[in-house]
Specification:
Elements lengths: L1 H20 L5 H18 L3 H43 L2 H17 L1 H10 L1
Length: about 120
């Protein structure tokens, strides 16, 4: 019983992880979701009707989570732009250039930071 409960819990985590870590879904995320639903369906012994309803529920949840991530991303970008504007009011153009160079240099080591930074500028 405990092992089955653990498996079911892991299935839920497995289903939700692609959404949480990558709000912009791709084919891999979709395949992962399908595998997760298939696993959950087997573990719980879902009927075809139940499986369809569960898929709809998780699809609805995924869309809501994506919307939240997109809203929060926009808020963060606004805060970052405000910070940049505030810094421009304090730093000299040379200091601002140096800061920009340092940020670009740091983003070379972390591709995600580079992408985030490009989205802001």
């Amino acid at each position: 019983m405990n092992k089955k409960l653990t498996s079911i819990s892991l299935a839920f985590v497995f289903l939700l992880t692609p959404v949480a870590s990558h709000p912009q879904q791709n084919d891999t995320g979709s395949a992962d979701r399908k595998k997760g639903i298939e696993h959950m369906s087997k573990e719980l012994g879902l009927s075809a009707d139940q499986r369809t309803k569960v898929e709809v529920i998780f699809d609805t949840e995924r869309k809501k989570v994506e919307a939240i991530f997109n809203e929060e991303k926009q808020k963060l970008q606004r805060v970052q732009q405000e910070t940049r504007s505030s810094l421009q009011g304090v730093l000299t153009p040379e200091q601002m250039n140096k800061l920009d160079q340092k940020m670009r240099q740091n983003s070379k080591h972390d591709p995600k930071k580079k992408q985030d930074r490009e989205n802001r500028i």
